[in-house]
């Protein structure tokens, strides 16, 4: 890695640490407007289905996000493992068919559950881990929780909490590649990016197009992007679906431009 890249990566790590500190302070006394989102469309319009259905190839059989995930992961029924990064996950995983997941986890900065919620989660084999999901320690703790298991479903949508996470493509790639390593064969990832600066968006789009093209049949990648405001520095977000198939690379394809195989 060249000096310049290393420097910007180090800055991004530092900026995230500061953001996490601010978020913990804020979250301890305040509540997020969007919280404990479910899987299915609901009255608040902020479910995973709402945000990710358009990046999922729904058809006559796979009519909604829940069906899509449960049918795609049907060979793991009863043994599936799921993680929500940046969310308690209690409501999200409750929206799946009972017993579909063997165990599930939510990774958050502050655990806001009351005692009733905690015991309801325990019955569902759902745990909440209080860690910074972008840190090495957070990652190690998730791996500890997983033990020998791999993850079948990784979901993340942090909304406002990711507003100040840097959009440096190398930094985002680094985090995504960590989670990718934990994903089982045929596993599914649904990821909402932080707001992304315009030139970073171009780099990330190039990478997505190349990855889709170069790994066709091995990695199923689809995404949508949305402009927040072309006038402001922070340009847009990406909603990404990534699925590993047989023969998928062990490591997430490198962030490179203009290299169509
Ligand atoms: C706006 S809420 C969204 C919650 C849920 N994902 C949803 O969509 O309803 C943001 C969540 O992200 C969590 N969060 C923010 N930064 C995080 C980090 N670095 N690591 C783990 N969780 C984080 C917060 O603790 C909070 O639970």
Topology:
Layout: H1 3-29, H2 48-52, H3 65-72, E1 80-85, H4 90-94, E2 101-108, H5 115-123, E3 126-130, H6 136-146, E4 151-156, H7 169-182, E5 183-192, E6 196-197, H8 198-214, E7 219-227, E8 234-244
Parallel strand pairs: 1-2, 1-4, 2-3, 4-5
Antiparallel strand pairs: 5-8, 6-8, 7-8
Provide an overview of this structure:
With 261 residues, the protein is of the alpha/beta class. The chain is 37% helix and 22% strand. It has eight helices and eight strands. It has helices at 3-29, 48-52, 65-72, 90-94, 115-123, 136-146, 169-182, 198-214, and strands at 80-85, 101-108, 126-130, 151-156, 183-192, 196-197, 219-227, 234-244. Strands 1, 2, 3, 4, 5, 6, 7 and 8 form an eight-stranded mixed beta sheet that branches. α7 links the parallel β4 and β5 (183-192). It is globular and about 50 Å long. The structure holds S-adenosylmethionine (SAM). Residues 20, 23, 27, 32, 34-37, 86-87, 107-110, 132-134, 157-161 line the site of S-adenosylmethionine.
Mean pLDDT: 93
Which small molecules are bound? Answer: S-adenosylmethionine
Oligomeric grouping of the chains: single chain
CATH architecture classification name? 3-Layer(aba) Sandwich
Question: What's the total count of β strands?
Answer: 8
- SSE-based structural type: alpha/beta
Q: Which radius of gyration do the C-alpha atoms yield?
A: 18 Å
| Element-by-element helix/strand order | HHHEHEHEHEHEEHEE
Q: Which CATH class is shown?
A: Alpha Beta
Q: What overall geometry do the principal axes of the alpha carbons give?
A: globular
Number of domains: 1
Largest sheet: 8 strands, mixed
List segments where confidence is low: pLDDT < 50 over at least 5 consecutive residues: none
| CATH homologous superfamily assignment | Vaccinia Virus protein VP39
């Amino acid at each position: 890695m060249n000096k310049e890249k290393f420097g910007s990566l180090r800055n991004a790590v530092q900026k995230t640490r500061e953001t996490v500190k601010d978020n913990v302070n804020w979250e301890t006394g305040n509540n997020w407007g969007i919280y404990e989102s479910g899987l299915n469309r609901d009255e608040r319009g902020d479910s995973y289905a709402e945000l990710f259905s358009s990046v999922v190839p729904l058809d006559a059989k796979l009519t909604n996000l829940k069906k899509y995930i449960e049918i795609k992961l049907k060979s793991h029924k009863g043994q599936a493992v799921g993680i929500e990064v940046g969310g308690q996950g209690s409501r999200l995983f409750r929206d799946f068919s009972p017993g579909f997941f063997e165990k599930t986890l939510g990774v958050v900065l502050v655990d806001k559950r009351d005692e009733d919620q905690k015991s309801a989660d325990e019955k569902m084999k759902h745990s909440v881990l209080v860690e910074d999901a972008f840190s090495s320690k957070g990652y190690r703790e998730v791996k500890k929780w997983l033990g020998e298991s791999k993850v079948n479903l990784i979901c993340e949508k942090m909304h406002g909490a990711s507003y100040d996470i840097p959009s440096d493509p190398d930094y985002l790639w680094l985090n995504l590649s960590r989670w990718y390593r934990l994903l089982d064969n045929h596993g599914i990832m649904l990821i909402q990016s932080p707001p992304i600066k315009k030139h970073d968006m171009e780099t990330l789009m190039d990478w997505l197009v190349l990855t889709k093209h170069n790994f066709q049949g091995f990695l199923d990648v689809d995404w949508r992007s949305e402009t927040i405001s072309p006038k402001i520095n922070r340009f847009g977000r990406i909603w990404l679906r990534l699925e590993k198939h047989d023969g998928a690379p062990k490591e997430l394809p490198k962030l490179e431009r203009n290299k169509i195989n």
